[in-house]
Design goal:
Helix content is about 55%, strand content about 5%. It is built from three helices and two strands; from the N terminus they run H-H-E-E-H. Strands 1-2 form a two-stranded antiparallel ribbon.
Length: about 150
């Protein structure tokens, strides 16, 4: 298992950023409403309404970005738990506790191979032999030799 603490911290930071963005969005909605009310009574300007509208759109984009940062942080946290996609035997482990490993979801940088898993059910074996050796094997097993 990979140390989860840095990823838990990043998730908490992303959550705090979302809360801050949501608060800015709520304020921007109120400020836009006020600017629209003032403009309707000729005490406000079109420029102020446009500015408040842009602030609300920016705050909305900030909320969307913070939401995605949370999803990204959760994914990194999930990746701290390494599990095999199937049962089998593993080869020698190629890293030890405390080793630095790297990974890349986008495949843009090299990743560290932890081990190799070999399936036991079903199990496949590949080997090379000449046709003559194969015929001798078949005959020794009571099979019929057929040329080909």
């Amino acid at each position: 298992m990979i140390d989860t603490r840095p990823f838990e911290i990043r998730l908490r930071q992303a959550t705090a950023t979302l809360q801050s963005s949501e608060a800015r969005l709520a304020l921007s909605k109120v400020e836009l409403w006020r600017a629209q009310q003032l403009k309707a009574t000729s005490f406000g300007t079109v420029e102020t309404v446009d500015q408040r509208q842009a602030e609300q759109e920016a705050a909305s984009a900030s909320v969307a970005s913070a939401t995605q940062a949370i999803l990204d942080a959760r994914l990194d946290l999930e990746f701290c738990h390494v599990t095999a996609p199937f049962t089998g035997r593993i080869s020698n482990h190629l890293v030890s506790v405390g080793d630095l490993v790297s990974g890349s979801r986008g495949g843009s940088r090299p990743t560290t191979l932890l081990t190799t898993i070999v399936s036991l059910d079903p199990i496949y074996i590949d080997f090379d032999m000449s046709q003559d050796e194969f015929i001798k094997y078949q005959v020794s097993q009571g099979g019929h030799a057929s040329g080909g």
